[in-house]
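Let's practice the habit of predicting before peeking. Look at the sequence and jot down your guess about where helices and strands might fall. Then scroll down.
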Amino acid sequence: MEYFDSLPGQLKTVISATGIILGSILVGIAIKFVLFSLIKRYNWKKTPGLSTTMVKHLSQPSAWFIPLLVLSFMLPLVKIPAAPFEIFRRILEISLIVTFSWCLIETINMVQDLIRRHYQITKADNFRERRLLTQLQFIRKLAKVSIVFFAICLILMSFATVRKIVTGLITSAGIASVIVGFAAQRSISNLLAGFQIAFTQPIRIDDVLVVEDEWGRVEEITLTYVVLRIWDERRLVLPLNYFIEKPFQNWTRTTSQLLGTVFLYTDYSIPVDAIRAELTRVVADHKLWDQRVCLLQVTESREHTLQLRILVSAANSGEAFDLRCDVREKMITFIQENYPGSLPKIRSEISEGRTQDKLAGAVVAHSI
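Done guessing? Here is the structure:
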């Protein structure tokens, strides 16, 4: 202590300030360690999933935020000249805003993970889950954008020069709002469409859609666009306004059950009852049939063929497609093996007199 008192005043100030800063950071790190140790110990017994999620998302941002928070409380004790103190205070203030925003964003991610864990979208009857997750995804993205926007505003407003510029802009807000509103009308309309989709839900996460003659599932709904995962692994990206302004097919709007259609074209001699009996036998043992609909009808009689329409039902669109393909293959094989004469054919009749004239003409032409 006597040695410290014997040091020059400026050096003592530097050592004291450094000690307070390092001590505050170490105290903050210790608080963070103790806090998360208690969380792990408590939640491991009660709700282990909550503990894992909190540590996953909040451990890293808290390791920065808590020490900076402790340092901000101890900052009045740091005795350094006014100019360096103001610079240090400004840096600390910006760092606190950034790390606190980081904590808020990770808290939102943590809540999303907990909800996703509780509401599993992978189960068969997942309409409630898809509805909730669609709203959650939109709200999460909007909340993150809002947090980042306000954090940037707070950082900029901490500078006096920026505050003067903002004050000047507010005085001309009328003209600026008109210009910005006109320039951003597409973005604003997309944002409003996002609200409408999130809460009226013409589409949801994992819905099966047919859009622009493409079949796929809704993979992601952002603030401005929707990503559709096509059956062949391509991605179709569409603006949110598309689903408000244009018609599209939603195959899972109220239920995922679907009817599959198979068309067969045969000769008029086909025994329809035998084909119907074979269809019943094939579908009855099929694992993809949900036992709701199995029907064969003669839907059209054309000049040379009959059109047979088969209707079979399945639990969802993917199973309906596979069931259609399998039924089509087995029914065609059955007709080929048992009624090959009833396959589509073209009939033609030639009269006897015209046949003799054609043969005589061919003999004369050959002799010449």
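How did you do? The longest helix spans residues 9-45.
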